[in-house]
Specification:
There is one protein chain. This protein is α/β, with parallel strands linked by helices and 652 residues long. The protein contains 27 helices and 17 strands. The strands form four sheets. Strands 7-3-2-1-15-16-17 form a seven-stranded mixed sheet.
Length: 652
């Protein structure tokens, strides 16, 4: 036996010190391999829509309702099944409502507990008892385990379970048990959650979404461009700070900054009200207005909006000049303005500016911040750096997230793999070296992590600056358009200048040979493999399908964000991958939690099978299963080593 392998087996023997211990683990692993694969749940482009996100998380994109249908079939009416589903999603709120409707609550408790127990038995059946036990709430773990575990030694099972349920009701613990069982069903209905980017911006509740994800039992996150810019702000990168504030104001989310994260906006407000006091700032209006807004507040917000936008354009110019290898010199626009004529020259053509009130811009040094602008940004940067809640959320993105993920035969990323028109991977200059394909994703992720963990000041700075590049650059996998036309939309009327052309990936990926080349680049070959991504909304309203390239590519950005629903015609796509295959779900707009509870309405409008497995997919067919098989192989070698005397059994 090779020395390295013997050393590994000796280490393994510390965990399995005897032949019987090793044999027991092999039997345990072998049994797990033959269980059905757990359900994976895919969401993308949530964009701060907390209520809709929370509901989809609770219903598992229809997974919970499907379990109810499987358990009860025709024995319960659709209305009763909808009522039970609503209870599982919102147990406390639903029980509060039922207390005003039901005359005999004890009987309702008993019936409901029996129904929940049956659903719980079904959702827990694909897991080991050990895994289910870990998911149980500590206070009621023993009783719930008794209720959902078959006990062959009990002759009169009906009387046994009836006794437990009656005791729960008599002791006044019904509601606590109903809530605990409901939470358990939600958790066991989805084994693992994939978030394919863009948690932040547009909607008002990304901080609430991040709070939920911090406590979620199993997940991974693929960074989106709107997530990465918040990561840059949390790292103290000043251009990212300005961009995050501009985005938040633009979408009416200043409360997210001030109340959600405690960012002190007073320095910016004071500066803007003084510098732009006589400026109506008509070009700087809300993209999406908050629910409540008065004229006085709107006037102030417009001035803040313009102030931070001008600061952003200056800081972006500084970044482009600082790092010419970014290849973004075409986005240096402020020095192309003729400040006397009120025009700007772009690509040899002259255009009239819609707003020339730029009191802080020095025509001779247009990208230089004034002393007061610098002071405002220093204070804002400090607020982001010292916001404990934001730093905790970004640490989750770093711990659970990355530029891409390969998981159970699926390649997951947010945007695109930058490509040339001929179908080859675009070569991108990152600090003097060229990268393409998977290597580009890898080097970008390395630099993002340097922004937070690198001790060398220059490398740390390069990492933080590159985060801004990832947000906006032509060849960024998370952006994937030829430019970000923010300046043009503010200052120029010509619509053709507002266009942001997508990378040719989005057309080329429809070709099987291109999709196969991308999958192979990330180590995936064979049947039943897919690219799953978001970023570009699927315009279902125009007949566009999220399933492309014969099912090999699935785009699940269907418009969670209210700002996109007019373009998409729905309120988001999500994807489920269970032991039977892949199912795509289209969602109706989520009106409110109150309506969902009172009227027992769900938002799953259509479920469509994308790929049905020839045979049920088992744990042994997954990535986890492959690791288990390798462990079984090494445990068998350990047993052989015990038997041959090469490794000595240990005393327990």
């Amino acid at each position: 036996m090779k020395k390295a392998q013997l050393h590994y087996l000796e280490q393994l023997s510390e965990q399995y010190p005897t032949i019987s211990k090793a044999c027991s683990e092999i039997i345990n692993l072998q049994s797990i391999l033959n269980l059905p694969k757990g359900t994976e749940h895919f969401l993308s482009d949530i964009h701060g829509e907390y209520d809709a996100f929370s509901h989809v998380l609770k219903n598992g994109s229809g997974a919970v309702r499907k379990k109810i249908d499987d358990v009860f079939g025709d024995t319960l009416s659709d209305r009763d099944k909808s009522s039970l589903a609503t209870l599982i999603y919102y147990p406390k709120e639903k029980m509060e409502l039922m207390r005003h409707r039901e005359e005999d609550m004890d009987e309702w408790y008993r019936t409901t507990l029996y129904h929940l127990i049956e659903v719980c038995k079904t959702v827990s059946s694909k897991y080991t008892r050990s895994k289910v036990r870990k998911a149980l709430p500590a206070d009621y773990a023993y009783i719930i385990e008794e209720l959902i575990t078959e006990k062959p030694e009990v002759l009169n099972k009906e009387a046994y379970y009836e006794s437990i349920v009656n005791t729960i009701v008599e002791l006044g613990r019904s509601e606590a048990f109903i809530a605990a069982l409901s939470d358990l069903i939600q958790q066991l209905s989805v084994d693992h959650l994939h978030i394919l980017g863009d948690i932040y911006d547009r909607g008002s509740g990304p901080h609430l979404i991040m709070d939920r994800l911090c406590n979620y039992h199993s997940l991974d996150i693929q960074w989106g461009n709107h997530d990465i810019i918040w990561m840059g702000a949390a790292a103290g990168q000043m251009t990212c700070v300005a961009t995050v504030i501009r985005n938040s104001i633009r979408y009416g989310n200043i409360d997210l900054l001030e109340e959600g994260y405690g960012i002190n906006m007073l320095p910016l407000a004071t500066f803007a009200m003084r510098v732009y006091a006589d400026d109506p700032c008509e070009r700087f209006v809300y993209k999406v207005a908050p629910v409540k807004s008065d004229n006085e507040e709107t006037d102030m917000i417009r001035r803040m909006h313009k102030a931070i936008a001008i600061i952003r354009f200056k800081l972006e110019g500084q970044m482009i000049m600082k790092w010419p290898e970014y290849g973004m010199s075409d986005r240096l626009l402020l020095h192309h303005i003729d400040y006397e004529k009120g025009t700007i020259e772009i690509e040899g053509k002259t255009y009239r500016m819609l707003d020339m009130n730029l009191p802080t811009v020095d025509p001779k040094n247009p990208y230089e911040l004034t002393a007061e602008e610098q002071e405002v940004m220093n204070r804002l940067r400090s607020s982001f750096l010292h916001c404990e809640k934001l730093q905790r959320h970004i640490q989750l993105l770093l711990k659970k997230g990355g530029m891409y993920r390969v998981y159970n035969g699926n390649l997951l990323f947010h945007g695109c793999v930058p490509m040339n028109e001929d179908g080859t991977f675009a070569k991108v200059n990152i600090y003097g070296e060229e990268y393409s394909g998977k290597a580009l994703f890898d080097v970008l992720e390395t630099y993002v992590r340097k922004a937070f963990f690198e001790e060398n000041p220059l490398e740390k700075e390069k990492g933080a600056d590159l985060i801004w590049y990832i947000w906006t650059a032509k060849h960024s996998p998370l952006y994937g358009r030829d430019k970000m036309a923010t300046f043009e939309r503010y200052f120029l009327a010509e619509k053709e200048l507002h266009e942001e052309r997508k990378n040719c990936y989005y057309e080329l990926v429809e070709k099987p040979e291109v999709a196969d080349a991308i999958l192979a680049e990330f180590g995936l070959e064979g049947d039943n493999i897919h690219i799953i991504n978001g970023h570009v909304p699927v315009r279902r309203i125009k007949g566009e399908s999220p399933v492309k390239c014969g099912g090999k590519v699935i785009v699940i950005d269907g418009g969670f964000s209210k700002a996109y629903r007019g373009k998409t015609g729905i309120a988001g796509y999500t994807l489920i991958f269970n032991s039977y295959g892949l199912t795509l779900t289209a969602h109706e707009p989520f009106e409110s939690t109150e309506i969902a509870i009172r009227e027992e309405v769900d938002i799953v409008s259509k479920r469509e099978a994308v790929e049905v497995a020839d045979k049920r997919i088992l744990v042994g067919d997954t990535d986890v299963g492959k690791k288990m098989r390798r462990k079984i192989k090494m445990l068998k070698k350990l047993i052989t080593a015990y038997q041959s005397g090469e490794v000595a059994e240990r005393e327990i």
